[in-house]
Each structure stands twice: as structure tokens, then as C-alpha cells.
Design goal:
By secondary structure, this protein is of the alpha/beta class. It has 17 helices and 24 strands. The chain has an eight-stranded parallel barrel, surrounded by five helices. Strands 19, 20, 22, 23 and 24 form a five-stranded antiparallel sheet that branches. Helix 3 packs parallel to helix 5. The structure holds zinc ion. The site of zinc ion has 8 residues, from helix 9.
């Protein structure tokens, strides 16, 4: 705080240990002499009066969150470089604040695309500002192994590298013979220690993930004998289909020797109580065709691939428990018997958290449809490529406690998490863009009491945060100001046979629209004016203004014609212009 105030204003604040006789003109941070139960370890109280600013808490973590709030109460320029502010104003207030959930996490996948150490530290600083206390670090997957393991140097010499591909993942050509593996990277053990210590200073626990038994191609490229086929596979670069994801062989003792070395070191490097073992999206065909695994299934009386996965999870869990840690896995691990200490991370929704809770397991809620930060945040026409959208308002609506979850099971829900998978995210600026502001919405979901949440207030508040991001040079999305385009069927319109028109204009076959379709426009943020054109010109506030009623598509417009839409606020453009083919609008029918 001192460095921020000093930098932004040119003030020179002075530190001193608390002196009760000089109680004025100070910002004091005080630990409660008597533990205040309501505040717990993370809560704080904040008093701003004309004489002084005072933060009180039971523990230093609470003082830290009090400080984060205090910084947010100062003007946005506080996030900027030196000398922009002449004075700092803060309103007088009194706050008592503590989190609703103990687990407030963000997951970043650094396997699909590696991010350098300095960025990880900057990301941790950003997360801490929004009172996140967990950084779930997805360190391994098919595309790259990112953590140095002593004695297993091929993991990072081979498993951390792949041929470079730029463009849209999923459509890349496979690695070619003799192609150089030029893209990738990894964290040395010294990097890991540095980042873990840095995170600790920001009251963030790093939970490492070693994704097993599936999503293990990088591990297998380094040590091919860990696969069922013992084949030397090329690295995964983002080719079509799902063939680049491989399982480790469960029935081969060699697998377990390597896993023992890996988890011994991972458990030593990370002070976290938990290690994430992955467990998601396992295919069974390799196992079912493998002599080692068939034999194991016979000996253990396992009748399916799912049973073999449960056996794997249980064996890996015992290994991790023997190193003094507990496991977390994606909700796919719930098939089979687990130690009661194990946590399910519920990504598929489907009430799997209830499944976990009924069996006495804690659960962390990160259902794909609300918390996946790799989804586009606005119209896919203008967003970086991703086929589906989770808007800011959708993230904000999320509640980790599903209405269908019985009261008696609520205590099993530890909290929630936003997850950023990076198949489509290459650059660190894009990581920031996908994270913010949705991670602000989620931070409020995880911290604040449900009745305090209000979307309209949130829209007001978020603008101040955008300014802060601007000063701090953090990238973020302003998609919430964009127009939203969809279609509706007007069933009062009776149509005989519109397709017959194609007999006159065969070259336009397939472009004729159902004449009952009308276009509907909206925006996430209230109070925006929406303007549109059908004539291929770019609209401004002199064009037709949307009046809230479905728009009739003009005569002559075909499926490949566009509606172009912009948003304005107080006479100034605010969102991006979206040009949407009418055939596309017609596909977006509101039910
Ligand atoms: Zn096998």
C-alpha cells in the first residue's frame, strides 16, 4: 500500500509500530486481542473516519483483505505510475466483511500454452486483489509437461516441447517427421519455490495438478514405456480429433515407479494440503487392449474400464496420502471408493456435487456452463475463437450451492473456482482478457452473501475496476457493452411456402429466410441505446434505434445479408459493432 500511495502521489508514508497515544492521521493495521468468531481467519473490519483509517482482523490474512478493500476505495489512479494524483480522497465508512466460502480459486492451464514465471506472479497479484485464496495450477496435460522433476529429466527435455502452430487449434497439421520442437517451456524447481513463496505473501495457496491417468501424452512422449502400447508418439499440437490424449498404463509396475518419483517431489515442493490428480476424460480402449491391464483387471475382479480407473484413482490416492497430502480430482474420480478426505471438483454439473456430498466428500463447484473462462465472453462473431459463450452476467448469476442441494449437504460445498483452459489462449495478454472481468464476478459469488448480489449495482461498480485495469496495464474484456443479437419466430405470420422462391433465383438457394423470423436486440448492461442497419453500412446514433420490439427483416434481405448493430450510452458509442448474417441470427432463436 505504501509503495502504491507513494508511487501514485509522490507522498512518503512512514511506517511505525502502533502507538496508541498518536491515534490520528494514521492508517493502522491491528490484530484483534480477542478472536472475533464471525470474522474467522479471513474477515476484517475497516473504519475510515476523519481522524484515521483502521483495519482490524483476527489474523494477518484478514488484515491483507482489509488492505485490498482499502486500495479499492482509493481512486483508480492508485494502480498507475508515479505522479498522477495530487491528493487521495476516501469516503468515511465502516465495514465488516468476511467470505461466504473458504475455497475461492482460479485454475490456469499452462500445459496447452506455457506462460512465463513473471506472468504467473503478476497473475497472482491480480487474483489476490479480488481476494482469491487458491491458484490451481494445471501443470501437465497432453500438450506439455511444465514442472521439473529431478531424476526424470526427459519430462522437461522432451515432454515440455512441441512444434509451433499458430492459428485455430483443433485444425493444425500433425507434427511432421524431423520437425523441430520449438514451442514450450517449463518451471524449474527453483522457479516453483519462488512462485509458491510469492503466492504465500499474497495469501494464495497453490494447488498443483498432475493430470492422470488420461491427458498424459506429454508424460508418455518423454517416457513411452508408460503407455499401453509403448509407442513413441509425436507431441500434441492441436490436431483434429481426440487422438492426442493418452492414458498411462495402469497394470505396468514401471508406471508406478515413475509416479512415485513425481509425487514425492510435487508433495515436497508445494506446501498445499491438497494435490490435484486430474482424473478427467479417460478413454478406456487402450487399457482394454493391453495385456498388463487385462491381467490386472482379472486379478482384481474389475469388469470395466471405469472400474480400472477407480482402481487407478484409489492406488494413486494411497500414494499421495503416504506423502502426507490429500487428493482433489475432477468429478470423474467419484466412480469407486475414495478416502473421505478426497475432494471432488465438480466441472460437469449434473448434481455430481450432491453425489460427492452424500458420500461424505467435500466438493468445489466449477460447472462448465458458469465458470469456464475459456468460453467466449461475448458474441462469437467478434470474440477470439471459441464456439460457445459465457457472458459476465452468467458468471455473476452462478451460485455454488445449487437450489436442489438439500440444506444438510451445504456444508460439503467448500466454494468455487473459475477455470481457464488454454487450447485457444496463446499469449499472456489473452490469459488476462479471458480472466477479467469474469473473475471479478466470480470473486463476488465466492465472497459475498447471496442477498447482497445485484447485477445492476455490479455493472456500475465494474467501470471503476476497468479504470484500475487500464492504469495497471492489465488486459480485460468490455464485451458486456456489446449488443446481443438473436432471433424470434413471430407465429402470427402465416407462411404458405417461401422456399418456392428458389425456383426463380436458384443461385440463392438456401439463402431464403423463414419470413416469420424477426431479429431481437438486447444488451447485458441496462440503459444502453442500440442502433442497427440492414443496408451494409455501419450504424451510428443517426440510424434506426431499437425500440425493444422484434425487428421485421426488410424485404430483399437474404440469409447472407447482415444486420449491423452498435450500442451507445449518453450519446457516445460504447460497445463493439457486431455484423451478424441474418441466417446466423435466425439460428439464435429465443425459446
Ligand atoms: Zn496398459
Amino acid at each position: 500500500m505504501k509503495s502504491k500511495i507513494d508511487a501514485a502521489t509522490g507522498y512518503r508514508l512512514r511506517y511505525s509500530s502502533f502507538d496508541r497515544s498518536s491515534n490520528e492521521n494514521v492508517i493502522s493495521f491491528l490484530l484483534n486481542e480477542k478472536f472475533e468468531v464471525e470474522l474467522g481467519q479471513e474477515g476484517y473490519s475497516l473504519l475510515v473516519s476523519t481522524e484515521r483509517i483502521e483495519v482490524r482482523a483476527n489474523a494477518t490474512q484478514g488484515l491483507f483483505y482489509g488492505l485490498m478493500t482499502l486500495l479499492q476505495l482509493l481512486p483508480p489512479e492508485i494502480e498507475g505510475e508515479a505522479g498522477r494524483l495530487n491528493n487521495l480522497n476516501i469516503q468515511c465508512l465502516q465495514i465488516k466483511d468476511f467470505p461466504r466460502f473458504q475455497w475461492r480459486g482460479i485454475m490456469l492451464d499452462v500445459s496447452r500454452h506455457f506462460q512465463p514465471k513473471e506472468f504467473i506472479k503478476s497473475y497472482i497479484v491480480q487474483l489476490a486483489k479480488y481476494k482469491y485464496n487458491i491458484f490451481h495450477w494445471h501443470l501437465t496435460d497432453d500438450h506439455g509437461w511444465r514442472i521439473e522433476i529431478e531424476g526424470l529429466s526427459k519430462l522437461t527435455e522432451i515432454g515440455a516441447w512441441k512444434p509451433s502452430r499458430i492459428g485455430r487449434p483443433g485444425r493444425f497439421e500433425p507434427p511432421q517427421p524431423h520437425e523441430m520442437n520449438t514451442e514450450g517451456g517449463f518451471y524449474t524447481q527453483s522457479d516453483i519455490k519462488e512462485i509458491v513463496a510469492f503466492a504465500k505473501e499474497h495469501f494464495i495457496t497453490i494447488v498443483p495438478e498432475i493430470d492422470l491417468p488420461g491427458h498424459s501424452l506429454a508424460l508418455i512422449t518423454a517416457y513411452p514405456d508408460m503407455s499401453c502400447t509403448k509407442t513413441k508418439y509425436p507431441p500434441q499440437v492441436g490436431t483434429p480429433g481426440f487422438n492426442g490424449s493418452l492414458e498411462v498404463c495402469v497394470g505396468n509396475v514401471y508406471t508406478w515407479q515413475i509416479l512415485d518419483s513425481i509425487f514425492t517431489q510435487v508433495c515436497e515442493l508445494f506446501p498445499s494440503e491438497y494435490v490435484h490428480i486430474g482424473g478427467d476424460e479417460v478413454r478406456y480402449d487402450f487399457w482394454l487392449n493391453c495385456s498388463h491391464d487385462r491381467r490386472l483387471m482379472e486379478t482384481e475382479g474389475l469388469s470395466s474400464g471405469a472400474d480400472l480407473q477407480a482402481y487407478f484413482t484409489s492406488k494413486l490416492e494411497k500414494l499421495v496420502l503416504s506423502k502426507g497430502k490429500k487428493i482433489i480430482g475432477w468429478d470423474d474420480i467419484l466412480h469407486g471408493q475414495l478416502d473421505s478426505s478426497s475432494i471432488a471438483m465438480s466441472w460437469r454439473g449434473l448434481g455430481l456435487e450432491k453425489n460427492a456430498a452424500v458420500r461424505g466428500h467435500n466438493a468445489i463447484m466449477c460447472p462448465e456452463n458458469f465458470t469456464y473462462l475459456n468460453y467466449a465472453q461475448g458474441d462469437t462473431i467478434v470474440e477470439p475463437y471459441f464456439p460457445r459463450t459465457i457472458r459476465l452476467s452468467t458468471s455473476y448469476e452462478f451460485d455454488p450451492i445449487a437450489p436442489s442441494l438439500p440444506d444438510s449437504l451445504h456444508r460439503y460445498i467448500l466454494g468455487g473456482q473459475g477455470n481457464l483452459w488454454t487450447e485457444n489462449v496463446f499469449h499472456y495478454r489473452h490469459v488476462e482478457y479471458m480472466t477479467w472481468p469474469r473473475a471479478i464476478a466470480l470473486s463476488e459469488v465466492f465472497w459475498s452473501p447471496l442477498p447482497k448480489r445485484n447485477w445492476v449495482n455490479f455493472c456500475d461498480k465494474i467501470e471503476d475496476h476497468f479504470l484500475r485495469f487500464d492504469y495497471a496495464n492489465i488486459n480485460y474484456s468490455r464485451a458486456l457493452y456489446d449488443p446481443i443479437i438473436s432471433g424470434v419466430i413471430d407465429s402470427t405470420i402465416v407462411v404458405e411456402k417461401y422456399e418456392s422462391d428458389t425456383s426463380f433465383y436458384p443461385e440463392f438457394h438456401g439463402q431464403f429466410l423463414d419470413p416469420r423470423i424477426k431479429v431481437v436486440l438486447s444488451s447485458e448492461v441496462p440503459g444502453l441505446d442500440i442502433y442497427y442497419t440492414f443496408d451494409n453500412s455501419n450504424p451510428d446514433n443517426f440510424y434506426s434505434k431499437y425500440d425493444g420490439k422484434p425487428i421485421t427483416i426488410p424485404k430483399g434481405a437474404l440469409g447472407d445479408s447482415e444486420i449491423r448493430v452498435v450500442t451507445y450510452r449518453n450519446g457516445k458509442p460504447i460497445g463493439r459493432q457486431i455484423n451478424c448474417k441474418l441466417a446466423e441470427a435466425a439460428k439464435r432463436l429465443q425459446l
